[in-house]
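User: structure tokens for this one?
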Amino acid sequence: MLRLAVTTQAETFERMRDPLADRGIEVVAVQPEERTLSLSEPDLPDADVGFVYPSRLMEGGVIDAFLDVPWVNGREAILRSRNKADVLTRLSQAGIPVPATTFVSNPVSDEAVAAAARQFDSPVVIKPNSTTRGTGVAKVMDLDSLLGVTDYLDLVHDYKATGDRSYLLQEYLPDARDYRVMLVDGEYAGAVERRLPAEDRERGQWKHNVHRGAEATGVDLDAELRDLAERAAEVLDVDYLGVDLLVTDDRAVVNETNARPTIDSATKYEEGFWDNLAGLIREAAES
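Assistant:
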């Protein structure tokens, strides 16, 4: 039986273990972080292939050296998807619609931030370039609030070891529907709409991240949006990818991507999802 090393969070590990076992793939857990690991006698399981490279690159390098296996999504795929500005630039250059965005390489002056912000209608979204789960993302209504947020970023970035000191200013799309589209081997595999409960929206919450309390409901995405997500995966050349779409009455844009997307319940995906995922894993193992 093929052994698959999985370094992702518990939800994905638990959901994939039985379906893949039915397809001749044993899923073994590898904890790359929040642990001690002897560099001479590591207590790691044997594996034939890895699922997605660990999110912490230093820990990932150690795990990768010990396992010495090919990955479905390797280090380069993780790095590319994590760099939001890189993703948006590649997609935009390929003619794929993305939100209007300005990349800020900190430190910059308040005057430069103010000039960049004047390109957008209020409010403006500000987000760290490498954040996940909506962490650190803010919506600001005026220049003073925006500069207050950048003041905090300056304090954090003043610590010179900070890995990514850049952030994005981005247009806000009010009332946009938020979809996470799953791609397996570049092909549409299902989608969910992420939506905050009504009471949360009434309290002023606006970020539709599941980790912020949004609910993910399986949807039958139309062909145009499926094609948009598949085009994004092709441009980025990432085999297992989550593509986040924002859709208004007159626009659809690729907002972000995730090369380590959490697997949801199987009822939210297309028929054949597990067969296709197993095929992608075997293909990676044979590479």
